[in-house]
Amino acid sequence: MSESIKIKKAKEIAFSYLGEKPRYSGESYYEHSLQVYKTLIKSGVTDESMLCGALLHHVEKEHDSEIEKALGPEILDVIRGLRKLSEYDIRFSSPKHSNDKYFIQTYLNLTKDIRVLLVRLIDRAVNIKTAYVHTPEMRNEIAEKALYLYSPICRLMGFSKITSALEDEAFKLVYPDQYYNVVKIVDKRKAEINKFFEDAVPFLKTILKENGVDAEIKTRIKHYFSIYKKALSYLAKGKNTEITYDNILDIAGMRIIVDTVEQCYLVEDILKNIWPEQPDERNDYIKTPKPSGYKSIHDIFNVSEDKNLEVQIRTHQMHEENEFGSASHFFYKIGNKFRENILENPNWLKEINYWENQSHFLENYEIAHFKEYVYAFTPKGDIIELPRGANIIDFAYYIHSKVGNNCTGGVVNGNIVKIDYEIKDGDRVEIMTTKHLKKPSPDWIKVAKTKKAVSMIRKALYS
């Protein structure tokens, strides 16, 4: 996509005011804004006001006259709308016990223009990726807003890709222990699932083609938070007495995209003749769409003794709208008429009644943590699993023996701590080291809690 004159000018203005302005994560505000802009481009957004708004939403109000003169009042309105949403600071003292529906409805009521809402949601999805640099309290607040405010709005609007991105990153921040275990389960099954896909896709395409259906088949492994929610639902239904992922068989998903509604039902009938279905799990969202307008047939098939497959069947038009909501229809189908449609009813977002449209995705369950281990973040946001009671020395040796040997202390959530500091869930840990090679102190053997650290200390001292 070639850049317009206004886009180029917006980049110039953004760089001049934001290029040297650092964020807490280390990147500049310009780099962050550019990432939001690029994400919109990848999502198929071509609306100039949205793209310029994404680039300039962090520029201070004192430069509004310059922006209006260079880019016009419409782009400035989008920027002001983004500022308004940003300034509306919702604090969840305890989201499990607060009425989050009020927050969501109020947030929707603040939004006059879907373009502003869409940019804001993508901005939050980009922002949460660097949330690990903040204090645990701030990380939790960012993650809770993602789970209890932005994600439900994304679901309501049908923005499935943004929903998944927000939920997985928030899941990682709030429940790093559960996130770590889901990742391990997925990694363990990934090769087997991918092998199944390699065999199943060409087989299905051949069968469908023989029946006159030229289908596009997409495969995926479910995103981490959806697997976690499945485990919670099993716990709530009494299928499990604790959170476990051993009996969750349907972590593999398949989308079959066809030309017509009639072909959707034909494909479903063909699949029923190939694999046993689970009738209780079937949902026909073509006949009964979700409040967001989402349409698809959902089935679960038992493809082997230890594997279920969730299949979604839809038309190309349904797929496009499901992936990016009603906005996708505007961007891809209406094109230049997008602005006209918004202007015809600029307040249509206020007409959405969240109370009537809420669904099961807001159900809350009690969280059961794995008490045996503690989960902390590296400066880059990776999760480290250590036995509870582990300290800075253990963390350092977990990373590498050289880091452990040269350890002088740590920085936890921005505060300098000693080597015996006991790591807590959600801590962001950076190891301080000396530039000069040294051997560990013999006293460290008494300080270290993990066998790995003790072994490496002994090796450094006596080898």
UniProtKB/TrEMBL annotation:
<dbReference type="InterPro" id="IPR012675">
    <property type="entry name" value="Beta-grasp_dom_sf"/>
</dbReference>
<dbReference type="InterPro" id="IPR043519">
    <property type="entry name" value="NT_sf"/>
</dbReference>
<dbReference type="InterPro" id="IPR004095">
    <property type="entry name" value="TGS"/>
</dbReference>
<dbReference type="InterPro" id="IPR007685">
    <property type="entry name" value="RelA_SpoT"/>
</dbReference>
<dbReference type="InterPro" id="IPR012676">
    <property type="entry name" value="TGS-like"/>
</dbReference>
<comment type="similarity">
    <text>Belongs to the RelA/SpoT family.</text>
</comment>
<feature type="domain" description="TGS">
    <location>
        <begin position="370"/>
        <end position="433"/>
    </location>
</feature>
<protein>
    <submittedName>
        <fullName>Bifunctional (P)ppGpp synthetase/guanosine-3',5'-bis(Diphosphate) 3'-pyrophosphohydrolase</fullName>
    </submittedName>
</protein>
<keyword id="KW-0378">Hydrolase</keyword>
<dbReference type="InterPro" id="IPR033655">
    <property type="entry name" value="TGS_RelA/SpoT"/>
</dbReference>
<dbReference type="GO" id="GO:0005886">
    <property type="term" value="C:plasma membrane"/>
</dbReference>
<dbReference type="Pfam" id="PF13328">
    <property type="entry name" value="HD_4"/>
</dbReference>
<dbReference type="GO" id="GO:0015969">
    <property type="term" value="P:guanosine tetraphosphate metabolic process"/>
</dbReference>
<dbReference type="GO" id="GO:0016787">
    <property type="term" value="F:hydrolase activity"/>
</dbReference>
<dbReference type="Pfam" id="PF04607">
    <property type="entry name" value="RelA_SpoT"/>
</dbReference>
<dbReference type="Pfam" id="PF02824">
    <property type="entry name" value="TGS"/>
</dbReference>
